[in-house]
Inverse folding.
């Protein structure tokens, strides 16, 4: 299975607003102000994943100078491991 995604066209919230992330299964992207993808991940529950994400401290450092946003694409459980 191949699905083409444009992370820049997906719904997103600022890193500071990550508490507004949905509780869905998802593929997610951390994107800086220059539209550079900094990180790609997957989550069973997107909101829960970002409560204690292991990359949060580093992204917060970047966010101080260059705003970071979190974009996501809801996914289904069967295909999440393949993704």
């Amino acid at each position: 299975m191949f699905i083409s995604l444009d992370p820049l066209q997906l719904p997103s919230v600022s890193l500071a607003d990550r508490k507004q992330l949905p509780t869905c299964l998802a593929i997610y992207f951390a994107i800086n102000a220059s539209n550079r993808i900094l990180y790609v991940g997957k989550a069973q529950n997107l909101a829960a994943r970002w409560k204690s994400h292991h990359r949060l401290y580093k992204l917060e450092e970047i966010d101080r100078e260059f705003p970071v946003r979190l974009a996501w694409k809801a996914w289904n459980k069967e295909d999440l491991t393949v993704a």
